[in-house]
Design a protein that fits this description.
There is one protein chain. This protein is of the alpha/beta class. It has one domain (about 5-220): Rossmann fold, CATH 3.40.50.150. It has 8 helices and 7 strands, in the order αααβαβαβαβαβαββ. It has helices at about 5-15, 20-35, 45-55, 70-75, 90-105, 120-130, 145-150, 180-195; strands at about 60-65, 85-90, 110-115, 135-140, 160-165, 200-210, 210-220. The chain has a 7-stranded mixed sheet with strand order 3-2-1-4-5-7-6, sandwiched between helices. α2 packs antiparallel against α5, α3 (about 45-55) runs parallel beside α4 and α6 (about 120-130) packs parallel to α7. It starts with a helix and ends with a strand. It binds S-adenosyl-L-homocysteine, 3,4-dihydroxybenzoic acid and magnesium ion. 3,4-dihydroxybenzoic acid binds near residues 39, 139 and 165. GO terms for molecular function: O-methyltransferase activity; S-adenosylmethionine-dependent methyltransferase activity. InterPro entries: Cation-dep_OMT, SAM-dependent_MTases_sf, SAM_O-MeTrfase. It comes from Eiseniibacteriota bacterium. This is O-methyltransferase.
Length: about 220
């Protein structure tokens, strides 16, 4: 089985279940034109994030890693009425592209793009002491995942859902001897999920147009 075949199936699924969407397509086009890396979630994965937000009846969503705002648009569209999304991005160029993409999607008033290192913004959010987030999507630098989980656990409640992208890394995650800092980051993250009594988690392997990777899904089962 090859990337070509996985991509063909992603296209089949998209043609079948994801009607053409001018705002999402414009976001992809503008991101590519600006030279952003094409590492956003795939369209079927984006739809999954949208559905998860709806199942969760999310009124507050936190995203770590905005890029051009492609996953942000999917998540924000899944918000309950009057819901809000905060997305964290270290690169001001990425944030500017995302702002424009979100504006085209009519989501500027719903989404707050916070520019800076996620660890700093997460600490600030904890100090601000606002209402907990119903859904968190972690998708920034992989070595940062363990720290993001620690900080995110201060920002959620029992019943919140934490989803993290790229936790399988072509299967490298099962290699305990890997020295790749990305692999080490997601391995520590997964180990923290396993050891954390306040969450119940699983990891789902995925294939598709982005290759072989996976999502972690963790339900917060106790008030942190
Ligand atoms: N969620 C996006 C893809 C995010 S790619 C989507 O699916 O559409 C990862 C992003 O995380 C990049 O834009 C990168 O600049 C950002 N990032 C990397 N390190 C970061 C950090 N320390 N804090 C915040 N954002 C970071
Ligand atoms: C890559 C993919 C991602 O989804 C991401 O968040 C970061 C990097 C990659 O394929 O390199
Ligand atoms: Mg990712």
């Amino acid at each position: 089985m090859t990337l070509e075949r996985w991509t063909a199936v992603d296209r089949y699924v998209s043609d079948l279940l994801l009607p053409s969407d001018p705002a999402l397509q414009a976001a992809l086009d503008a991101s590519a034109a600006a030279g952003l890396p094409a590492i956003q979630v795939s369209p079927p994965q984006g739809k999954l994030l949208f559905l998860i937000a709806q199942v969760q009846k999310a009124r507050t969503i936190l995203e770590i890693g905005t890029l051009g705002g492609y996953s942000t648009i999917w998540l924000a569209r899944g918000l309950a009425p009057d819901g809000r999304l905060i997305t964290l991005e270290i690169d001001p160029r990425h944030a500017a592209i995302a702002q424009a993409n979100l504006a085209r999607a009519g989501l500027s008033d719903v989404v707050d793009v916070r520019v800076g290192p996620a660890r700093d913004t997460l600490r600030q959010l904890a100090q601000d002491g606002n209402e907990p987030f119903d859904l968190v999507f972690i998708d920034a630098d992989k070595p940062g995942y363990p720290e993001y989980l620690t900080l995110v656990l201060r920002l959620v409640r029992r019943g919140s859902l934490i989803v993290a992208d790229n936790v399988v890394r072509d299967g490298a995650v099962a290699d305990a001897s890997s020295t790749d800092p990305n692999v080490q980051g997601v391995r520590r993250f997964n180990a923290m999920l396993a050891a954390e009594p306040r969450v119940s988690a699983t990891v789902l392997q995925t294939v598709g147009s982005k290759g072989y990777d996976g999502f972690a899904v963790a339900l917060v089962t106790a008030d942190p």
